[in-house]
Write a structure and sequence with these properties.
- The chain is an all-alpha fold.
- The chain has a single domain, classed as Rhopdopsin 7-helix transmembrane proteins, CATH 1.20.1070.
- A two-stranded antiparallel sheet has the order 1-2.
- The N terminus and C terminus are likely disordered.
Length: 355
């Protein structure tokens, strides 16, 4: 009995990714998720507190930051409780439902936000006279649609998701419907949520970069302010282009991992599948959510100044609270000292009273 159990445990261990690998990625995912949550929170706070950042493009950037914040917070909680983590815990069915649902919603919102950012910059750069097209009442409607559509489309993930069985490893969660429905659903989602946005963003950014290289003196003018505005647009375009490129690089790795594990799983043993699954399926998309705030605060002077102002405001408030607390403590100490002195003077007798 004991020999059989030990052989079975050894066989299971050989099917899993090495513990050292899981431990390293457990720490790495924790650090990246922490950077993602803190960074995207700071992006949102900086946008809300700084009047200079209330532009059309930054509305969509903040919308993406909120979705990335949701992704980072959700993924860390569910990954740490799964069998892929260093603790080797088991994931509940409710956790699978939440993970699959929030994964789709967050990814879709970020994807649509990138498309809206590209459309907004395309109008502002190529058709500057029509820059007010996405403003006022249209912008809030577009932002709401980026959340409403994924919330509705992702309902099957919320309802049919379950914990994967042993033959379905290395996946943690699967959709409990027929294979044909899953293939159709994934194929349609891949085209609509990956291929179409990628093509649209590529075409729009190509037009933006081409327009920025071709200077139109009739529209832009020849003065110093127009030259500075043109350089600023080029810098903004490069920042947003880097965000787009890194986003699709990370999610391309995710999709490549999915295709390999779905169609060519027999070419890899289970240990290699789990290693591939952790690094590409989970880690790369999470890195993309932490990359955006780092890029914004590193290369955007407006966001960097907004971050300084917010941190300075926090420091000033904390210092004022500390000073007020010290003054309050000193006041209490003086009051106590006065009471003690008064009480002592009442109890002490003067020389006349002794006589």
């Amino acid at each position: 009995m004991n020999n059989t159990t030990s052989r079975f445990s050894l066989h299971i261990d050989n099917l899993q990714a090495p513990y050292e690998f899981k431990a390293v990625f457990f720490v790495a995912i924790f650090v990246v998720a922490l950077v993602s949550v803190i960074g995207n929170t700071l992006v949102s706070i900086s946008f809300a507190k700084t009047q200079n950042l209330l532009t059309s493009t930054n509305y969509f950037i903040t919308n993406m930051a909120i979705s990335d914040l949701l992704y980072g917070a959700t993924l860390w909680g569910l990954f740490s409780s799964s069998r892929l983590s260093a603790f080797g815990a088991s994931l509940s069915s409710f956790g699978c439902k939440l993970r699959n649902y929030f994964w789709l919603v967050s990814y879709s919102v970020s994807n649509q936000s990138l498309v809206l950012i590209s459309v907004d910059r395309f109008i502002a750069t190529v058709f500057p006279m029509k820059v007010t097209m996405i403003s006022g009442g249209i912008r809030p409607v577009l932002i709401c649609l980026t959340w409403i559509l994924p919330t509705v489309i992702g309902f099957p993930f919320l309802y049919f998701s379950r914990v994967a069985d042993e033959p379905e490893r290395p996946f943690l969660c699967v959709i409990d419907v027929t294979r044909e429905v899953v293939i159709t659903y994934n194929a349609v989602g891949f085209v609509l949520l990956y291929c179409v946005p990628l093509v649209v963003i590529f075409i729009l950014n190509a037009c933006i970069m081409k327009s920025l290289r071709r200077r139109n003196p009739v529209i832009q003018g020849n003065g110093h302010s127009s030259t500075r505005r043109r350089k600023q647009n080029q810098r903004i375009a490069k920042i947003l282009l880097s965000i787009n490129v890194f986003f699709f690089i990370c999610w391309t790795g995710h999709y490549i991992c999915t295709i390999i594990l779905k169609l060519f799983s027999t070419a890899f043993n289970m240990r290699d599948q789990e290693t591939l699954f952790i690094s590409l399926y989970y880690f790369l998309p999470l890195v993309s959510t932490a990359f955006n705030p780092v890029i914004l605060f590193s290369f955007s002077s407006n966001y960097r100044q907004a971050l300084r102002d917010c941190l300075l405001l926090v420091i000033v408030k904390c210092r004022s609270c500390f000073i007020v607390g010290e003054v309050h403590v000193e006041t209490l100490e003086l009051a106590e000292a006065a009471k003690t002195a008064e009480h002592t003077s009442k109890n002490q007798k003067t020389p006349q009273q002794i006589k």
